[in-house]
Amino acid sequence: MAGHPLKLVGAGQALPAAVLRGFVKSLARRIAGFPASGLAVIKERVNAVTLAPAADFRRDSSLFIDGVRNPEAQRRIKAAMKRGFQTREPEMALARMLADLAAPFNHDAGLASTQEETP
Predict the structure, then answer these.
(1) What are 12-21's pLDDT values in tens digits?
(2) What totals of helices (H) and strands (E) does the chain contain, helices first?
């Protein structure tokens, strides 16, 4: 199958933006052509091996709520909001925002990098 869209990419590879739309449309058409019963079976199996049971989601939600109630988490969330965390720019530069937020907390905890003193 020369030129088949699925031959364009392999695991861990990305498509150039100019090619992505056509690739996705072609793939969607190909999947839509499969028998519905086969797609349903595949979807069920993928969900069975990738989705956690509902109890695990409830436990994760409880852990998250407990975590954000922590005073340290509250301080960091407040600092993030003061820096515009709820806007698009920090979201697009999340790694930098998180590093900037961690710096004062790491310093306060004695975790900031120290320079060697010269004699």
Answers:
(1) 677 788 888 9
(2) 6, 0
Residue 107 is predicted with a pLDDT of 59
CA-CA distance, 97 to 79, in Å (whole number)?
10
C-alpha dihedral, 16 to 21 to 24 to 30, nearest 10°: -120
Residue with tokens 């109890």, as numbered in its chain: 55
**If you ran DSSP here, which 8-state letter would residue 33 be given?**
T
Predicted TM-score (pTM) of this structure = 0.45
* pLDDT tens per residue, range 30-46: 988 999 999 999 999 99
Does residue 35 contact residue 43 with C-beta atoms inside 8 Å?
no
**Domain parsing of the chain, residue ranges:** 21-51, 54-108
Which letter, b or e, does each residue of 68-92 get, where b requires 16 or more Cβ atoms within 10 Å of its Cβ? eeeeeeeebeeebeeeebeeeebee
How many residues in the chain? 119
CA 44/CA 81 separation, integer angstroms: 40
Burial class (CB in 10 A: 0-12, 13-18, 19+), 1: exposed
